[in-house]
């Protein structure tokens, strides 16, 4: 099964079901709590940009709202098939045409990893489709980026408030919501992307990874993650050396022509098994490193693993302060899947093919007797649907943010008392 299997609803059917979803299930109050960050800065939510994609691909940018009631009212009124979240600006985005010096001032540090960027190393799906055989690429990305962003032994960034979200179709998003992350300048965001990027070069360049000593600790950690599951992904799921075309694709990643010749000769004695061929290639590199132990170590095997499995970031999404990203809990207009959050610690068990769809959720509401519910019960309708477990993840994330905000207020209160004293 792939995500293409979920594309059963027409655009018109999605637009017909969306009003019920927005009125009954979309977590507006939680959204406001998230994007206002405790109202420590009073105009934080008011100056936030949203964009709506409506029927016939009508795109509305610079939407902004004074409070959660206005936000909910406008979403229900416009019934967007897609909703994106942008930066916090120096003034209300809806006034951008009349404000002098209108500019973005803060935004979460966001990352967008799209499966279509891995089409050269996955052989199970094409275009926008994903399946359980290629999804491990997203698992690699989550584990590697989560560890790098949270930091370990003070080597990396030390961010703590990361919200991971399935895009609803073919990728994942990460929202880094720490205060220090939201305040990063464009140049620092650029530096972070550079730090996290190991694949360099355009489409015409085959070999994109070059490792040298000393290998940075973050790269070592990434390699540890990849090595644990490389065989499962590359050999079992992708059969990545299953035919001559796939073999030549890998050989293009090796610069040493003698090494290529030796590998080709060794592969002649192998069966059709990708496992046996990969073992022969690894042995060839090992023999070369032993033979030339005084020379610079050849990291060819590690470079191949990284090129196949290391996260591929959309740098523009992360660097640009005025770039918008699809909102969590909106419905993907192509698959009708809800963009749901998940825990990085449980990414191995997260199945993108089993996330709730719009029709499934509406059916669950109808099945649970929505017509007879009281107003209070309607506000908690999500608890009786497949969306509940994902909203609980979001709620837990908001509780962590609230703890940060409470600590911030106490700190500022203490400073004021000291100043008065």
Automatic annotation (TrEMBL):
The keyword Secreted does not apply. Coiled coil: none annotated. GO terms for cellular component: alpha DNA polymerase:primase complex. SUPFAM superfamilies: Prim-pol domain (SSF56747). InterPro entries: DNA_primase_S, DNA_primase_ssu_euk/arc. The keyword Metal-binding applies. GO terms for biological process: DNA replication, synthesis of primer. Pfam families: DNA_primase_S (PF01896). GO terms for molecular function: DNA-directed RNA polymerase activity; metal ion binding. This is DNA primase. PANTHER family: DNA PRIMASE SMALL SUBUNIT (PTHR10536). Belongs to the eukaryotic-type primase small subunit family. Its EC number is 2.7.7.-. It is an enzyme of class 2 (transferase). It comes from Strigamia maritima. Keywords: DNA replication, DNA-directed RNA polymerase, Metal-binding, Nucleotidyltransferase, Primosome, Transcription, Transferase, Zinc.
């Amino acid at each position: 099964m792939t995500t293409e299997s979920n594309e059963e609803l027409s655009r018109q059917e999605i637009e017909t079901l969306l009003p019920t979803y927005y009125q009954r299930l979309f977590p507006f109050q939680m959204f406001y709590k998230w994007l206002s960050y405790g109202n420590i800065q009073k105009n934080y939510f008011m100056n936030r940009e949203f964009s709506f994609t409506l029927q016939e691909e009508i795109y509305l940018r610079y939407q902004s709202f004074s409070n959660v009631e206005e936000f909910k009212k406008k979403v229900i009124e416009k019934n967007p098939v897609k909703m994106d979240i942008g930066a916090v600006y120096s003034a209300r985005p809806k006034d951008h045409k009349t404000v002098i010096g209108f500019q973005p001032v803060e935004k979460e540090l966001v990352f967008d990893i799209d499966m279509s960027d891995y089409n050269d190393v996955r052989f199970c799906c094409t275009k926008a489709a994903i399946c359980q055989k290629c999804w491990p690429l997203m698992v690699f990305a989550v584990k590697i980026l989560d560890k790098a962003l949270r930091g370990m032994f003070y080597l990396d960034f030390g961010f703590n408030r990361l919200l991971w979200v399935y895009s609803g179709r073919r990728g994942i998003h990460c929202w880094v919501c720490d205060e220090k992350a939201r305040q990063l300048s464009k140049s620092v965001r650029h530096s972070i992307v550079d730090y996290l990027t190991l694949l360099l070069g355009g489409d015409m360049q085959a070999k994109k990874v070059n490792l040298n000593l000393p290998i940075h600790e973050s790269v070592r950690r990434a390699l540890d993650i990849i090595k644990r599951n490389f065989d499962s992904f590359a050999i079992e799921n992708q059969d990545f050396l299953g035919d001559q075309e796939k073999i030549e694709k890998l050989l293009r990643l090796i610069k040493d022509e003698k090494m290529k010749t030796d590998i080709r000769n060794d592969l002649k004695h192998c069966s059709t098994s990708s496992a046996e061929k990969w073992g022969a290639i690894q042995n060839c590199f090992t023999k070369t490193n032993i033979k030339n132990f005084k020379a610079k170590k050849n990291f060819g095997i590690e470079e191949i693993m990284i090129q196949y499995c290391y996260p591929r970031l959309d740098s523009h999404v992360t660097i640009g302060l005025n770039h918008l990203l699809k909102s969590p809990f909106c419905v993907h207009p192509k698959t009708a899947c809800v963009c749901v959050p998940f825990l990085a610690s449980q990414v191995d068990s997260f199945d993108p093919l089993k996330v709730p769809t719009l029709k499934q959720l509406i059916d669950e509401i109808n099945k649970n007797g929505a017509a007879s519910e009281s107003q209070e019960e309607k506000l908690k309708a999500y608890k009786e649907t497949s969306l509940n477990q994902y909203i609980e993840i979001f709620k837990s994330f908001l509780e962590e943010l609230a703890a940060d905000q409470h600590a911030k207020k106490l700190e500022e209160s203490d400073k004021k008392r000291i100043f008065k004293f």
